[in-house]
Amino acid sequence: MKVIRGGRVWLGAAEGFREGLEIVVEGSRITDVRPSQPDQPTPSQETGAREAEVIDATGHLVLPGFVNAHTHAAMTLLRSYADDMALHPWLTEAIWPAEARMTPEDIYWGSLLAIIEMIRGGTTAFADMYFFEDQTARAVAESGIRAALAPGLVDGEAFEARLQTVRELAATWHGEAGGRIRIMVGPHAPYTASQGLSRAAELAGELGLAIHIHLSETRKEVEESLAQHGLTPIQVAERAGVFQVPTLAAHCVHVTDGDVELLREHRVKVAHNPTSNMKLGSGRAPVQKMLQAGVLVAIGTDGTASNNDLDMLEETRLAAFLAKMEEAPQALPAATCLEMMTVYGAEALGFADVGRIAPGYQADLILVDTSGPHWTPLFDPAANLIYSGKGADVKTVVVAGELLMERGELKTVDEERVLHEVRQRAQRIARA
Ligand SMILES: [Zn+2]
Fold this sequence. Notes:
By secondary structure, the chain is of the alpha/beta class.
């Protein structure tokens, strides 16, 4: 049993931050959120078991961990490998040829590096789409973080074999590691997996899995889809039956009113990736419009070859600023941002009991240090967090009741070893 005592606790957009509370964690779950009892030790009297471990949160914000709703974790191997290019040449000339040189073991180490970076920035769960996802699953299981992993699918000779990989991955990993791992089906996008979209949707339906896909990321993608099919990419996905299963759609930058209505009607969750959209020159997703229409929008970093980091606080701040930029300063207020990066993200990944500090929820919690100059004064902790907080202010991270980082020290991963491995492997991959 752990008790997190002190600090300001985030209870959701309606209640905001509250002081004078303590959070009781038993096993992987939060069992109580109650007024602080600072003068008494908290032994488990009924069982006579050892005393509770108290985590002192004085001077910190206590929040549900951040959820990164769209990334490609092992792309850490390609950080700063190819920059300042548009999406299509970037993929075909730089990224795909380099990815063809990656081994399963590379994916394992690249994923671990991403996980370290995410834990350090307060991310406790992420949605991933890549290849050799069994290696990412291994890294997730060992590190203690939570993830929804989608093996990417593209058209071509290997498509049927890849579907078989999805089956095997789901049989081995879905619901495993104490429920920390979920498997999704990852048709890359309508323009790269057009033949396979309906097969992917069928398989997801058969296995009871959700879909993770890229939709309407660039104007070029939408124009080519209209020219080829007379339909937007979102309409193509809908016609192929993708939305018959729960769907997480990354980007949705260039969407029509009809597209937004389709997303709402089918309860498609959107992962908004402002940095990647800006850096690749893809455009600005109409986030406020989608939220107002009743579409769930979560926040993702995308991969580190198009971002180039995995800092969810920075990502969410950019989402807020991008939404406000064109004379809409009321768009995406700090409290909404906090919901998007926690409970909306958890819902987008399919974790129903993650993302809130309440009894019955998974104990995925972070402590953010508010002692720095950029936190002073602290009129509105949500505003401080979103508009001036830094990823490095996250000091302690708990996932499923386990400490992954304590006062800045990682507990489950050998950081030095991982950095060394990735440096070596990235050199080999970059050598064409
Ligand atoms: Zn992506």
